[in-house]
Write a structure and sequence with these properties.
255 residues; four-stranded antiparallel β-sheet; 5 helices; 14 strands; 34% helix
Length: 255
């Protein structure tokens, strides 16, 4: 079990992203964050490494933000809610990537509270600037107001229920795509990439797209968790692909 909050432990029920050093063909960018408890000496520091798009809790904020937005003046949250100050932030590049999932959607790593989820704005935006990322889903420059943490936590809820309550092995025998995503996470990636191809700038249309995407994610999550059947999952993927293809064809005919 892993720590997810003050004196609270949970099982890791799966991995949203799991790519070993041996399977990775490219190095992944990381943020290496060194922190210390506020007011304490730096010799009691701890270190956390996470990708720039991984969500982390800033002290005083309810919604976690992408690590790429952290500044040296920001304060973070410790495992017992204590305030942590950032001593330095460094960039690193190395092979391999592991993103564990817990029922609460949170995990404590190196004494620091982080989300188990990631911003997909780099996939959902055709012109992405990592330094201007957002904790919310952004489409065509429009901030939808839907936080990535909330979207992904809602989507993974059925999957978490299956793995922690219904499954005997805790979904320990998951299979992963060539990019290292489990099949549930790969749907979110697919939809994000599809949205990146859309050029609609009307905020109302964008919100409708987001609502439709969340509904599609929820349907996939429920069916996948209820059946744990790759055949059912494949059928849903085809249906979703046809749906988005139809939308693109329809849009092209309107221009």
């Amino acid at each position: 079990k892993v720590l997810v909050g003050p004196n609270k432990y949970q099982e890791i029920y799966g991995f949203g992203h799991r790519l070993s050093d041996e399977d990775a063909t490219l190095k992944t960018e990381y943020r290496r964050i060194t922190v210390a408890r506020k007011g304490h000496a730096s010799n009691s520091s701890s270190v956390l490494e996470l990708t720039p798009s991984h969500l982390i809790y800033r002290h005083g904020d309810d919604t976690p933000i992408p690590a790429s937005l952290l500044k040296s003046t920001d304060l973070l949250v410790g495992q017992n809610g204590e305030v942590l100050q950032i001593l330095k932030i460094e960039k690193e590049y190395r092979y391999g990537l592991y993103n564990p999932l817990t029922a609460d959607g949170r995990i404590v790593v190196g004494g620091i509270l982080v989300s188990t989820y990631t911003s997909f704005n780099n996939l959902a935006s055709a012109s992405f600037d990592r330094d201007r990322d957002s904790p919310n889903l952004v489409l065509a420059g429009f901030d939808t107001g839907f936080s990535w943490h909330s979207i992904e936590h809602a989507f993974f809820k059925p999957f978490a229920f299956y793995c922690t309550v219904l499954s005997n092995d805790g979904c320990g025998e998951e299979t992963y795509t060539g990019e290292g995503y489990n099949y549930a996470a790969s749907v979110a990636v697919m939809i994000s990439r599809c949205l990146a191809q859309q050029n609609e700038t009307n905020p109302v249309v964008q919100v409708l797209k987001v609502a439709a995407s969340i509904l599609a994610l929820a349907i996939v999550g429920v069916v996948y968790a209820a059946t744990c059947s790759l055949e059912s999952y494949a059928v849903l993927l085809v249906l979703l692909g046809l749906g988005f293809g139809y939308v693109r064809i329809g849009r092209s005919r309107l221009h």
